Amino acid sequence: MIDHSFSRLAQSNRFKHSSQSLWRSFLLISILGVSFVPCDSIRNALAMPTAEKVFHLLDLPEDTKLKILKGEIVNWTTSRASDRELVVGLVVLVKKRPEDLAESFRQVTEFKVIDSVKAYGQITGTGNLEDFAGLVLQPNGIEEANAFLNAEPGGNLNLAKNEIAAFQALKSQLEASNQSKKQVEESLKSMLFARYQAYRGKGLAGIAPYDRGDGEQLSPGQELTLATNESKVLRKTIPLFYKILLNYPAIDAKGFEDRFYWVNIEVFRRPTLILMHNMLLFIEGAYVASERHYYASHEYNNLQTVAGALPVEEGTVLIYVYRISTDYIGGFGSSIKDAAARAIMGPIVENLFKTIRDRVEKD
After folding, report:
1. Phi, psi values for residue 312, rounded to 5°
2. CA-CA distance, 167 to 159, in Å (whole number)?
3. Cβ atoms of 301 and 220 closer than 8 Å
4. What CATH number is given for 6-132+219-362 in this structure?
5. What is the mean pLDDT of the chain?
6. Tens digits of residue pLDDT in 197-213
7. How far is 253 from 108, CA to CA, in rounded Å?
8. Where are the beta strands (DSSP E) in the chain?
C-alpha cells in the first residue's frame, strides 16, 4: 500500500506520535457496548486451574512466571501470521475474579474521551444507510475526498476494484468543489454499508479484497484467517471462540455477544474509516473478547485483538494479543518487526493493563 523504509518509519516522530494515538484509540474502543454479565452456571462449570497451568500453555520461562506472580506485566511473544503482521502479547495476574473486572474495564476504556476518534456509530441488525448518518470526512475532509476521487489501484487507499471504479465515475460527474466532499461522503456510506452487509452475511469470505494494481489483490479475509489460525493458545484454551472467529456468522454458542461499529479515527491528520466487529464469549468461568477491524481505509489492512480473562486459583490471568497487518513494513525481518511492534504498540497496551491492575486492586 505505502512504500516506506523501516529506518524512516522508526525514526519518524510524526509516525510514532500518530501511531501511538491510533493504537490507543483501538485499545480504548475495544470494549464498546459489550455487556459483562457472567452466568453462574457457566462460571461454576469447571474447577479453576492454577496460574502455573496457564503459564505452561503460554510456554513462559521460569523467570517470566515469577514476574507475573509478583504482579508485573510481561511481554509475551507469539508467532505471526505473515510478513506484514505486527504482534504484541501481554500477560498479567490480577487478584480478582473475571466478573469483578468489568466495571474497571469500562472506566479505563471510556470511549467519549478519546480525542482522535472523530465520530462513530453502531450498525444494528441488517443495517441501513441511516446507521452511517454521522459519517463526515474530518479532519481535512476536502483533501481526503479528493484522494478518493483520484483513487487508483496500488494507491494509498484500501479499495476494491469496483470501489475504485465507482469513485472514478463520480469524479467524472463532479467539479472540484466543496460539494465534492459531500458526494464522496455519500458514496463512502454506501460502500461501507455494502462491506458490512457482505461481512455480516458471509463472514471472512465476504470481505472484498484491496486492489494493489498489476493484478495483485490483498485479501483481508485471508489475512484474518491466518491471524486466527496462529492463535494457538486460544485454540487450546477456548476452542469454541476460536471456531467463532473463523466461522462467523455460522455460530451456535450460549454466552456469545457481538456488536458492529463504524469509526472515524484521525491518523496523520487524515480520517481513517474503520468497520469494526466486537465479539465476546462467556464460557466455563472465563470470558474472551475480540475486536476485529475487517476494513480500514488507509494506514493498515486489518486488525484483530484477542483478550482473555482466565480464572485461576490466584485470581485472574489477563492475556492480550494484538495483531495488525500493515504494508508499511512488509518484507522486513522478524526481529525488526518485533522491535517496531513493541515500540509502537507495547507501551499503550501495557499502560492499559497497568491502569486496570492498579484500579481493581484498590477496590
Report:
1. -135, 170
2. 10
3. yes
4. 3.30.530.20
5. 79
6. 999 999 999 999 999 99
7. 29
8. 74-75, 85-94, 117-123, 210-213, 216-218, 256-267, 270-283, 286-296, 302-312, 315-325
